[in-house]
Write a structure and sequence with these properties.
This protein is an alpha/beta fold. It contains 7 helices and 14 strands. The protein has one domain: Ribonuclease Z/Hydroxyacylglutathione hydrolase-like (Metallo-beta-lactamase, Chain A), CATH 3.60.15.10.
């Protein structure tokens, strides 16, 4: 299995000889307005997208955790080939249909596609009223016969639903959306450094890949701060914190 971080939560995953693009945010740097009610007014995305040549033509499918604009923006709607399969949570089917996509596969519970099983998982995109307003969001567990199991947690804090998946599925690889994203009021809506540490402790058998960092204006946790926290907790050997464009390869 190969996992390349393109930017933010946009990943290019090669599994079972299929290339799956996760949560494409394809806008050029500064093309989108800041997230409202945030601690700064920097335009998004904060950095340019790093991609392989012609990668949109070479992907086999798209996997969406949800359709907030930092995971599926207007540039993605305009640039993605309309005949590529898109796997998504059921709540996003109508938007994708209205956007002209032709092969939409909503996942209620699980779906087998391309020799890969996709099982949808829950999450909590913040706490209290903020979490209710930010919902729905999903994560996914991906499995194939010849690859390590992969849990893409999606936009969630560490919560009971995440803990249950870690205990039940025992994934070998876990992608977490860190960055400690937040608004001017309320608690963080994606994982903080301590949330990532909780994932490490709950899943000591797994390698953690922390993304969703330093690309959107309300994500305040930096790579350096996350790395420092994990070093203090003696967990840094368990976690990869890739730079944009980095490729990671994992054997079965």
């Amino acid at each position: 299995m190969r996992i390349q971080l393109l930017r933010h939560a946009t990943l290019l995953i090669t599994i079972n000889e299929k290339k799956v693009l996760v949560d494409p945010m394809l806008s050029q740097a500064g093309a989108m307005s800041p997230i409202d009610n945030s601690p700064n007014s920097n335009r998004n995305p904060l950095v340019e997208l790093i991609t392989p040549i012609n990668f949109l033509q070479e992907i086999d499918a798209v996997l969406l955790t949800h359709t907030h604009r930092d995971h599926f923006d207007n540039a993605a709607i305009n640039q993605l080939p309309k005949n590529k399969p898109i796997l998504c949570q059921p709540e996003d089917k109508d938007l994708l249909t209205e956007s002209g996509f032709l092969k939409i596969y909503p996942i209620d519970n699980s779906l087998d596609w391309g020799g890969i099983s996709f099982t949808r998982t829950g999450g909590q995109h913040g706490t209290g009223e903020i979490a209710l307003k930010m919902a729905p969001v999903s994560g996914y567990v991906l499995k194939s016969e010849t690859e390590p199991s992969l849990y893409i947690a999606g936009d969630t804090i560490y919560c009971e639903a995440v803990g249950e998946i870690l205990a039940k599925d025992l994934p070998r690889l876990i992608v977490v959306n860190a960055g400690g994203a937040r608004f001017n009021i309320g608690d963080p809506i994606t994982m903080t450094a301590e949330d990532v540490a909780k994932v490490c402790r709950k899943a000591p058998q797994a390698k953690i890949i922390a993304v969703h960092i330093e690309a959107i204006n309300h994500c305040l946790l930096t790579r350096a701060a996350l790395r420092s926290h994990l070093e203090d907790k003696e967990l840094s050997d368990q976690v990869f914190i890739p730079l944009d464009g980095d490729k990671l390869e994992f054997l079965s």
